[in-house]
Amino acid sequence: MKYLGLDLGSRTLGIAVSDGTGLIASSYKTIRHNEEYDRLLDEVKSIVEELNIAAIVLGFPKNMNNTIGPKGELSLSFKEQLEKILDIPIHLQDERLTTKSATDMLIMGNVSRKDRKKVVDSLAATIILQSYLDRTSLFNSYKYSCNFGPLMKYFLPSNIKGFLPFLYLLY
């Protein structure tokens, strides 16, 4: 199952794509849109069709105090517009500090300021998508790699969120 990761900014859209197994995210490209959201929607739709994408993960910028600001409202609006033109699931993923993390990675890699501006948004989209993939594969990793023997997969609850603290105590 292939996923598309999106980091929506005021002037650019960073795009990442997962591999066919939905385990590894990689940068795809950055689209400069200058707030032309109708054109941007068309471009995302064509990418979804071209790459045979099964779901989209859209970065959801919340404030540090967990409130939704203007950029968060913009992402919610963009999600609603995408849902109107696409017939695939669109998931929101918290994207706080992803652009900062991407910038720090590029600085540590000695990438020049000029080159950083070209790739920082697609790298942020990659971080967003990889975070989502890691979070959703958490259930599978516990389901099949616990040290409790092969029969443990039959005893794990379908909703593992409440069960994770219990697993932690067993380790």
Q: Could you describe the 3D structure shown?
A:
With 171 residues, this protein is of the alpha/beta class. It is built from five helices and five strands, in the order βββαβαβααα. It has helices at residues 37-51, 70-85, 98-108, 113-145, 164-170; strands spanning 3-8, 12-18, 25-32, 55-60, 90-94. β1 (3-8) and β2 form a beta hairpin. 26% of the residues are buried. The model is unreliable at 148-152 and 163-171 (pLDDT under 50).
Most strands sheet? 5 strands, mixed
Distance between the termini: 31 Å
- Give Rg in angstroms: 18 Å
Helix-strand category: alpha/beta
Low-pLDDT residue spans = 148-152, 163-171
Broad shape: globular
Helix content: 40-55%
Oligomer: single chain
Number of strands: 5
Strand order of the largest sheet: 3-2-1-4-5
- Annotation field: number of helices: 5
List keywords for this structure.
5-stranded mixed beta sheet; single chain; alpha/beta; 5 strands; globular; 171 residues
